[in-house]
Amino acid sequence: MRKKTLHDLKDLKGKIVLVRVDFNVPIENGKVTNNARIVAALPTIEYLIKNEAKVILLSHLGRIKTEEDKKTKSLKSVAMEFTKASTHAINFVAATRGKKVEEAINNMENGSIMMIENTRFEDVKNNILVNYESKNDEKLGKYWASLGDLFVNDAFGTAHRAHASNVGIAKYIKESAIGFLIEKEIKFLHDAISEPKRPFIALLGGAKVSDKINVIDALAKKADKVIIGTAMCYTFHLAMGKKIGKSLAEPEKVDLAKKLMKKYQDKLVIASDSICTKEYKDVKGKVYENIPDDLMGLDIGPKTIKVIKKELKGAKTVIWNGPFGVTEFKNYQEGSKAIAHELINLKDAITIIGGGDSAAMAIKMGIEGKISHISTGGGASMEFLEGKELPGIAAINNIN
């Protein structure tokens, strides 16, 4: 069933529209350091403003486990960054419910925007962890739904979670739809795995095989090659009988790695060499295939880079999730840089980079405008690729 989109919502003028966005952005010294997620949500918000709706933005920011966490996790600085990015004024209300919020809504004009405080402030009350937002408290979802006429979910980054601010609101509000961002995310990811142009190459980084076992399995069934690098490859190295030194691995998943290598022996490509160092520090390392006991691998080596370049040559669909190396260290960015360089030079190819660390890495490298699509949701994109139903999208009204 197709989900309702913004274009399916009629007569928006004067309607109060609750919009769940994903403004979970990095903040340092009270300032947003990367506004990509804010910018990604603007088309939906601009459309609603143009149609003279009253827009109420809801988002989380980080995790709230104590009252102390609230001091550094307010959305106030995010609201300020939104004004800079959009040039629209926004009324930030330092509350998640109650009289302050209700009065602010009553005073809204058509085409105006307000933002309530971090939805996860509802997870802690009087220093007690209650998780009203994160556990989809029915009363909270019902309350937020009562504030508006319509609900738009445009937070792909939390679509794989059932929270009060997405699933809860959708359950109790009269009409709901997905925003332009989620619509775009679904299209790119769906097309990539259901009707991929070939050769179709998947690149998977990250730390744990256990985190991506279902993704490896799902992609290996559809892709021509699945390339595994960074820390995740060391569990496979153990399965091959190679020495990995102090590198991060999951010894308890070795049997699983062996099964995957046997099942997909013609498709899996495992990084073979690594740039290694004694400590987890940004210092120059050395290349090894069998890593000495006192060293750890922090990036893929030149032999692996050469193999990846060969596999990517002529690729028509590429999905990349997880950096290939510790990219926060300058000395261990070469693997990811080499892959990025290959992707932006592919001709007539669909290139997709997964969210989370991968998206941050792509933006840091300045390649976001040269990639077909950079997902705003790391966990959500992986679960979508696994074929799982995403609660935040499933809760939205279907087209009759």
From TrEMBL:
Substrate binds at D22, F23, N24, R37, H60, L61, G62, R63, R120, R161. GO terms for cellular component: cytosol. One of its GO terms (biological process) is glycolytic process. It is an enzyme of class 2 (transferase). It catalyses: (2R)-3-phosphoglycerate + ATP = (2R)-3-phospho-glyceroyl phosphate + ADP. (2R)-3-phosphoglycerate binds at R37, R120, R161. ATP binds at K212, G297, E328, G355, G356, D357, S358. InterPro entries: Phosphoglycerate_kinase, Phosphoglycerate_kinase_N, Phosphoglycerate_kinase_sf. Monomer. PANTHER family: PHOSPHOGLYCERATE KINASE, PHOSPHOGLYCERATE KINASE 1, CHLOROPLASTIC-RELATED. This is Phosphoglycerate kinase. It comes from Candidatus Hepatoplasma crinochetorum Av.
